[in-house]
Amino acid sequence: MNDWSVLGTLTAVPALDRPDLLGDPVAHALKLLDPADAALVGVAEIDPELADTAAFCAAYGSPMDGSANCVVVAGRRGEVTRYAACLVLASTRADVNGLVRKRLDARKASFAPMDDAVALTGMAYGGITPIGLPADWPVLVDPAVAATAAVVIGSGVRHSKLALPGELTARLPGAEVVEGLGR
């Protein structure tokens, strides 16, 4: 039995049973996971106007410390831009200018512009998630996310949320747990 209670008052179903609630890259990536891991991921439909974490948590009774934000960071050195995704608890912020900048070997790092993040991921802004990102992107996971029993993340679209064990986030393709990522 999966524990998707982190979704508060929402009722989740196995994510692969509802591809209509997933962004295309997310549905594709879930199909590529080990079936036992994919079965650990639940999805619940939400009001897309409540997709932002604070509004979502308030409306559905989901704990802030059980929700994680996935932010896309662009690091630039000369003419080369590298991207990474950072997954941190909603109650923290990613150390973009320190740790992430160094990890990307960049002179400057910042949140990727919304249009770039959407175009490069194929996901909706406000629904970007570590599942289904471009294969060459590192997915930096804060240890606090990996340690949660269950965590809420985006689904690639604004009209649903995913719930999964925190430890699964650390085993996603491209994922690496990075001490000190969330502050």
TrEMBL record:
It comes from Pseudonocardia humida. InterPro entries: YbaK/aa-tRNA-synt-asso_dom_sf, YbaK/aa-tRNA-synth-assoc-dom. Transmembrane segments: none annotated. Residues 48-167 form the YbaK/aminoacyl-tRNA synthetase-associated domain. SUPFAM superfamilies: YbaK/ProRS associated domain. It holds the Pfam family tRNA_edit. This is YbaK/EbsC family protein.
